[in-house]
Amino acid sequence: MTENEILNYLEAYGLRARNAAAVLAVAPAGVKNAALSNAAELLVRNTERILRENQNDVETAAAKGMSVSMQDRLRLTAARIEAMAEGLLQLTAMEDPIGAILEGCKRPNGLEIIKKRVPLGVIGIIYEARPNVTADAAGLCIKSGNACILRGGSEALRSNLAIASIFKEALENAGLPGACVQLIDNTGREIASAMMRLNRYIDVLIPRGGAGLINTVVTTASVPVIQTGTGNCHIYADCDADPEMARKIIVNAKTQRPSVCNAAETLLVHRGIAETFLPAAAQSLTQKGVELRCCEEAYRILERSGVPENRNLLKHAEESDWETEYNDLILAVKVVGDCAEAVAHINTYGTGHSEAIVTENYEKARYFQDHVDAACVYVNASTRFTDGFEFGFGAEIGISNQKLHARGPMGLKELTTVKYVVNGSGQIRE
């Protein structure tokens, strides 16, 4: 496609989105909820069709050499489709954020000034091989009164097209424009690049994916970006931790679903418990196929202990391991002297996503939560809970690790802005 052809192609999406956004912005909550309920019902009803298209995507991706962990991100199951539908139904039960009065005042000159919540407008979302994002993003945008233009990765095109068609049908059944949710069916890089500069039609751009995608969007886009961050997440096992609790938490955070951004990538262990805790944790982790990349002290401890039995799963860490989001069954391991050293390591190498301490010491727990700079900071719980569904948001459009406009799981309120409405009785400024 020529540059003009690309521009014309995207402007058609943008114009439809603008027109749809104007309708959706003032749609009653009941109408938006009807669209979401319809979409939930249609997702479940069309499970076999969605799974068939998804299987084609997975087979193609596998043939191209996609890693097993990334295939897991791409793969849908009946249970995952049911969870997508449940997330939409949760949204219907939530209060509509649009039109909410946040504050107001009456000035001495009689002007009444009211601050109210309104939609952002048109949201562009660029994402990779997670077709559930299509449903989550569409649902959140509908409920918050925003039209959305979705551009998923080529790996999930068939899955995304199937899900997007369901939302179009659900919207039209509810009397709303089908263009409230649009999926770009051309996955070429030049389309994505041009979308990042579609300022005339897109109000905000949200990237979801690996570090490469996010960095490209942040550095290329002229459209304002809400940065959803990569997840170099840590679990710190303190000397006052319950060892069994700490073991269960790190195994869950690393292995329950290693390909997602809230999975743990580094285990920090207090030197006072390292000799006993590390072999036990390593045994559980390596039984699930986790490769351990250890600092020298951790390596020596595990080497002496004879754990893991599979020595191919025990490696020396390099400097780059402390800053890597593996999205795979790989875990960096480091022994630290105290909580302050753990915090310093996290604030040096972390990505501001999700961090956890396991400890029975109240003062250390508070110190960790106060001093770690991250969107979500846990005490005695797995980082895997950083998720809009788990937080009760129905779903999330991403996990923001920046500090402006939103931080953490982005639900309905994070997809809004404010408007000041001012009522007068003929006042003029002298």
Automatic annotation (TrEMBL):
Domain of life of the organism encoding this protein: Bacteria
Extract the CDD domains matched here: ALDH_F18-19_ProA-GPR
Limits of the Aldehyde dehydrogenase domain = 17-286, 330-420
Biological processes per GO annotation = L-proline biosynthetic process
Q: Which UniProt keywords apply?
A: Amino-acid biosynthesis, Cytoplasm, NADP, Oxidoreductase, Proline biosynthesis
SUPFAM superfamilies named in the record: ALDH-like
The keyword Ribosomal protein belongs to this UniProt entry's keyword annotation: no
- EC class, as a word, reads oxidoreductase
Which reactions is this enzyme annotated as catalysing?
L-glutamate 5-semialdehyde + phosphate + NADP(+) = L-glutamyl 5-phosphate + NADPH + H(+)
What InterPro entries does the record tag this protein with? Ald_DH/histidinol_DH, Ald_DH_C, Ald_DH_N, Aldehyde_DH_dom, G-glutamylP_reductase_CS, Glu-5-SA_DH, GPR_dom
Provide the E.C. number(s) assigned to this enzyme. Answer: 1.2.1.41
Q: Describe the family membership recorded for this protein in Swiss-Prot or TrEMBL.
A: Belongs to the gamma-glutamyl phosphate reductase family.
**Protein name in UniProt:** Gamma-glutamyl phosphate reductase
Task: Please tell me the species this chain comes from.
Answer: Candidatus Egerieisoma faecipullorum
